[in-house]
Specification:
7-stranded mixed sheet, single chain, 625 residues, elongated, 7-stranded parallel sheet, 21 helices
């Protein structure tokens, strides 16, 4: 499922944005000449032997070639360097693609139209060069046309977007606070990087071939675009007008570069917004990012959005349980306080660690544990026995980790697809040949999923929903992706045995919620869904597996649901008194444990700890051991 795509120059502005765009649904690997977050392998495109060796090992189905010496002035001053990187390096990529019958997507430039004057240029317009950089691109295009049958040439230019520390035109304007001299006589087609990346993904999806202009839909002078930026970002200075002839350029610049991109708009069905809209969007996102905190506090209930919350347990300040520190100075402790919602009965924490911080480089791999592997084997067998699935029916797993369930489903001949936000964990699944989507589970991801595949007969998630803050978004996405006669299988830590068996150390920041069946049903009811069956399962010290459906689904609600709901109510799990009593028991245990340890210490015993489990971290910290 996950087509392997290699991006050269993956650490550059364009390369890393394409990487981020494609990583969700494709097996993306980046190569560049230095280490970066987006570099999976170091590769010098000018070294033919290295290129052939690495590409043979990776064996991508498609290559997006972004590795280039992109400085127009630099190419003019140092044409030998430009030739080596741009001509010889690109030729090495082209030759490998030809030899191995692979597709090449090449990022060219709209500067190829620079000789045409004040005309609206289409793909069949004349091309020519005013400088070395543009001539390199034209020579590359000719080589591709002569050597390859399966290719896309993208003529684009004046690409802008947010890039912290980057040097695209937008970032130069922001960094200089608008104090720049901008030519008023150069007409360009500003192209937003996110739009360009979206187009490239759609081109891959539709398997397009040929030459395409990909630019924004507005032609405007550089000075007008600069003034838009200054106004929207409220920059201190207004950019200064200057004529091109008064700038000491080494490389000649075209005055008119108007491009018609209607061909690609029609092919892919996507039309860009106005630049003003994109700039306002970037400004809004920058403000949000600058104000974003790794830790923040939720003001309302996660299950019903109400505010009828009461604090029931306070475990003090504790570190993130599953984070291993490189330096002791990195230790950060966060309040671990547990709340109960009097309206929907959900037990939850309000101090939240951002999911990007928790899950981007997640270290828990499900397949490591035999007990967990056995559990997912049993779940896969139950799915096969219980549901009459066709081979085309999709089982979508939310929080699929390293693919432990998807592997079991595959071995039973079922069509499982996983989705997980952790880059490193998703790569583990893909390396096993398992279909895995690297993204957060939300409406945006699901819309793309349905477009690429179809709706799912079963959506399942095991030990994942407790980790999610915005459950409204998740349940909406489940409802959207689930077929009308489909089933949601939801496995979570079960609150009832956690309280009855005194598992207070199962409260930690990854577990935003501890669910009862009543709380789950109240959440689902808000989105026209309901539980129709449920059963306790032993995994993780006591969990619950619920089967839910859309309310218009024909499935009958089983007696098990009524029995469990009645048990929870009789046990006092729908009122705060049950939990306040539990809190007093925790305080007694803390005192007893510390007294016992002090007793052994005073007797001269040596005390040692073994292991680094999350629950061990919680116990040690709440007891200040």
């Amino acid at each position: 499922m996950n087509k392997r795509i290699l991006i050269t120059g993956s650490n550059g502005f364009v390369g890393k944005n394409i990487y981020n765009q494609l990583i969700a649904f494709y097996d993306v690997l980046g190569v560049s000449d230095n280490e970066s977050e987006y570099t999976d392998r170091i590769m010098d495109v000018t070294n033919k032997e290295m290129v052939n060796k690495i590409l043979d090992e990776i064996n991508p189905e498609q290559i997006i070639h972004c590795a280039y010496y992109p400085h127009v002035e630099g190419c003019e001053v140092n044409p030998e360097k430009a030739h080596k990187i741009n001509i010889e390096g690109t030729k090495n990529i082209i030759e490998w693609c030809k030899k191995n019958s692979k597709k090449l997507i090449f990022l060219s430039t709209d500067y190829v139209y620079s000789i045409n004057g004040n005309f609206l240029n289409k793909e069949d317009s004349s091309i020519g060069a005013l400088n070395v950089y543009t001539q390199n691109k034209i020579d590359n295009e000719k080589e591709i046309l002569n050597q390859l049958d399966n290719f896309i040439i993208i003529r684009t230019g004046f690409i802008y977007g947010y890039d912290k520390g980057g040097k695209n035109f937008l970032m130069q304007m922001i960094e200089s606070k608008g104090h720049m001299e901008i030519p008023e006589d150069q007409v360009v087609n500003p192209t937003y990087i996110d739009f360009l990346c979206e187009v490239i993904e759609k081109m891959i999806e539709l398997d397009l071939k040929g030459i395409f202009n990909v630019n924004g839909k507005e032609s405007m002078s550089r000075i007008d675009f600069a003034r838009q930026i200054a106004e929207i970002f409220k920059l201190k200075n207004n950019p200064l007008r200057i004529l091109t002839e008064n700038i000491n350029y080494k490389a000649k610049r075209p005055l008119h570069c108007k491009v018609d991109s209607s061909k690609v708009y029609e092919k892919i069905g996507i039309i860009p917004k106005m630049n003003k809209e994109y700039l306002e969007e970037i400004n809004k996102n920058m403000k949000k990012e600058n104000g974003r905190k790794i830790i923040y506090t939720r003001e309302n209930c996660r299950g019903c959005c109400g505010k009828n919350l009461i604090k029931i347990i306070s475990l003090g300040n504790v570190p993130i349980a599953n984070s291993f520190l490189k330096n002791k100075s990195d230790l950060q402790k966060i309040p671990l306080e547990i709340y109960f919602c009097r309206d929907c009965y959900l037990v939850q924490i309000r101090d939240i660690v951002s999911p990007e911080h928790l899950f981007k480089d997640y270290r828990y791999a499900s397949s490591v544990s035999k007990k967990v592997r056995d559990h997912f084997n049993q779940l896969a067998v139950e799915i096969k026995k219980r549901f009459n699935l066709d081979k085309e029916d999709i089982i979508l797993e939310v929080g699929s980790n390293d693919g432990v369930l998807i592997k079991e489903l595959k071995e039973l001949g079922l069509n499982g697809i996983g989705i997980d936000p952790s880059v490193n964990i998703t790569k583990m699944a893909r390396e096993k040949g398992l279909p895995a989507i690297n993204a957060f589970f939300n409406i945006k991801t699901i819309e793309k999923f349905i477009r690429k595949f179809r709706k799912a007969k079963i959506v399942t998630g095991s030990n994942v929903f407790a980790h999610i803050d915005n459950m409204d978004e998740v349940v909406k996405a489940i409802y959207e992706v689930l077929e009308d006669d489909g089933t949601l299988i939801m496995e979570v830590h079960y609150l009832i045995p956690q309280i009855e068996n005194f598992q207070f150390d199962n409260f930690y920041h990854e577990h935003l919620c501890e669910y009862s069946v009543g709380a789950i049903n109240n959440l689902l009811n808000r989105f026209n869904m309901e539980i129709y069956d449920a059963a306790a399962i032993p995994i993780h010290g006591g969990s619950i597996r619920v089967f839910a459906k859309k309310k218009n689904n024909f499935k009958q609600i089983q007696n098990s649901v009524k029995e469990i709901l009645e048990y929870e109510k009789r046990g006092g799990f729908y009122s705060e008194e049950r939990y306040l009593k539990f809190a007093k028991e925790i305080e007694k245990l803390k005192k007893d444990l510390i007294d016992k340890l002090n007793y052994f210490k005073n007797k001269g015993y040596k005390l040692a700890g073994y292991g680094a489990s999350a629950r061990g971290t919680i116990l040690l910290n709440i007891c200040n051991i």
